[in-house]
Amino acid sequence: MGIAGEDGTGAELPGLLERFSEIGRKNGTGIERLALSDLDATARGELQALWAERGLHVYRDRIGNQFGLVQPLDSAKPLVLVGSHLDSQPDGGRFDGQVGVLGALAVVCGMRDRGLIPSGVNVGAVNWTNEEGARFQPSVMGSSVFAGVLSLDAALASSDTREVRVADELERLSLAGDAELAGRVAGYAELHVEQGPRLEEEGVDIGVVDGTWAAYKADVVARGVQTHTGPTPMAKRIDALYGAARAIAAVHELGLARTDGRLHTAVAWMRITPNSPNATPSAVEFKVELRGPDEELLARTRDELLGLLGGITAESGVAFEVGVWSERRAESFDAALADEVERSVRELRLSTKRMPTIAGHDAVVMNAAGVPTTLLFVPSHDGITHNAAEFTSDVDLVNGEAALAAAVQRLCARVLAA
Amino acid sequence: MGIAGEDGTGAELPGLLERFSEIGRKNGTGIERLALSDLDATARGELQALWAERGLHVYRDRIGNQFGLVQPLDSAKPLVLVGSHLDSQPDGGRFDGQVGVLGALAVVCGMRDRGLIPSGVNVGAVNWTNEEGARFQPSVMGSSVFAGVLSLDAALASSDTREVRVADELERLSLAGDAELAGRVAGYAELHVEQGPRLEEEGVDIGVVDGTWAAYKADVVARGVQTHTGPTPMAKRIDALYGAARAIAAVHELGLARTDGRLHTAVAWMRITPNSPNATPSAVEFKVELRGPDEELLARTRDELLGLLGGITAESGVAFEVGVWSERRAESFDAALADEVERSVRELRLSTKRMPTIAGHDAVVMNAAGVPTTLLFVPSHDGITHNAAEFTSDVDLVNGEAALAAAVQRLCARVLAA
């Protein structure tokens, strides 16, 4: 395993990460900064102040995405963005997202200070709004609005469980602006923690992402009949939670049954009505997701699940309303760009591995929108993520920062050549 | 099936019920008036105004129980209380509770007006605070504090999911007083809808309750490890919701498997942490209840369930923390009193049936506390309850009111003879 940064570059990320991990620190080593919360606003304010202090030109767009550009926005030059997100999961880890935003700050300023930005290109750091989708659905919200695949109005109208809307929070916390950068973007780079165990298991420094897994997701409602949990005879009950429980177990077991690792399944969110201890639930909403590299396998799994739900209905009386399946295609990243980036990273004496991303990322959105994109992974200890125990070593952070700098230089060259 | 009230008595309950069902009307024929909500306060205010208008003396105690007495409280006479509760389930029905509170008003005033209250006894109507336990746990809160089996401090400190305490709402809505009536109570009568299908199925007018089912209840926490729903390999996941789903299905199936109707099981409330679409849950809390007439069967079922949970842990890695089991004993009601009440009800040419109550009621609390208690049921159409479709016919309401009047007269005679 190599260590980059021996020439004094790439030493900034561990310190920046330590500093930002104090904002919303939770569960010891973790953070909790839900999108558009007070703590998210604090982190955004700190980031903006730091950008300004380092001489970056700060912009915000209508969905609250933040940009720190080396040159002012009115330049006619193509723009290369580098970033990720500062929002976290509830009880989240401190690496997921932050690594990419703070790495971008270090890399962009470092390249500028060392004269490595070609004069024909503008380079900027970015913090995308609400990547996690924990509080407001959908996830990757800010980058999706930026890329034009989610309407601004739909995003602004999204509301949390207390009926607070994205628009309300952007206004309350004064987080939005009116900058329009989307038309100028010619390249995007992101550094992220792997969130899986493969790099660590194989002793590899840097993952160069070459594609995404497909994902099928659907909202399901189990419908029963609300009645008293006491006197109603068991045979007369149509208990939505019983039906939902069987369905949720079935979803998990479809994934468990594939021992080749090509199918990941989960239900992680649900809402029970009325959720009163003495009333059998009338409705249980839950979100099903199926992920894998093979869309045909996902389609078969979806059909198998629908068959299982039919069986549960026949036995329990609980009906299932399955919403429209959102089908995220398995996408490829630009292979020539990945080749060039991988070569540059190896020149730093770091080992690399081509791998897909299973999780969604802002880079996945940019790539799908046709922007030349490079996404780099650093190892996640034991693959633990969305958890305070999430961990990436300082050595890996320094390696990641150096790799990101190399990737951005390669991307700038590519943009100039286009 | 008989119809009481041919002499002009017992005709008040249907009209009163219609009037109060406008407060918090929901889902067409249902109501939603959670304990200590604004709508509960409105209903309480209307009740108190009506009591005062009818010349009853109004008192409130520290937990917000309301009393409307025929004679002022400072009398040295033994007190016979008649009542139930005005709070409802979320998406609840309009008969559960209201029938007993409004029936009490009609019966107490009717007896007084017709000179049927013996001079040695004081009689009062009562509305108990938070019978349902939907918003604040435990259920039967007001009657339990009154009976001395739940401390006032514990009840006041109970909080809802938004961390609002019972004490906060009592103060905000000015619902508490400082009357102390518990020491004077010598008898209690309650009219309630059956909430099961038996009276209707057997064509019986009035159920005379002779005992309660036992209930074993426990709070359970399923513990997993929070991680990303995407990249984490299935074999590495310890998903608390998967474990909880299997456990909840198992609870239901234990009850389903007993085809003799002597075991009712349910999980109706749960809370998921963090409940974020992309993070496998770290913890799922849920409430298990087992009910039946046979405590030995409940103990065996509890042990069988614990064995099943152990099996789920072995297979999924999800650990279960099972809290202390609250074991509500199967209790008998005073058999001699039930005999007398049944005889009086039959004199009205109403058919009767001795039956247990499976649901908890304020009358169950009073009976367990040693107060001579009578609890009468009227039929619930199809046994549907805790649901807007809950239905009891006007004929059955009129029958119930007449039966309650007869029962209270019998109870007064019993109290005088004691």
UniProtKB/TrEMBL annotation, chains A, B:
Cite the binding residues for Zn(2+) 2: 96, 132, 386
Q: Which residues form the signal peptide?
A: none
Keywords, sorted A to Z: Hydrolase, Metal-binding, Zinc
Q: How is the cofactor bound?
A: Binds 2 Zn(2+) ions per subunit.
InterPro entries according to UniProt: Amidase_Cbmase, Bact_exopeptidase_dim_dom, Peptidase_M20
Q: Name one Pfam family in it.
A: Peptidase_M20
- Per UniProt, where does Zn(2+) 1 bind? 85, 96, 192
Q: What does the record give as cofactor?
A: Zn(2+)
- GO MF terms on file? hydrolase activity, acting on carbon-nitrogen (but not peptide) bonds, in linear amidines; metal ion binding
Q: Is this entry keyworded Ion transport?
A: no
PANTHER family from the xrefs? ALLANTOATE AMIDOHYDROLASE, ALLANTOATE DEIMINASE-RELATED
Tell me which family the UniProt entry assigns to this protein: Belongs to the peptidase M20 family.
Q: What is this protein called?
A: Zn-dependent hydrolase
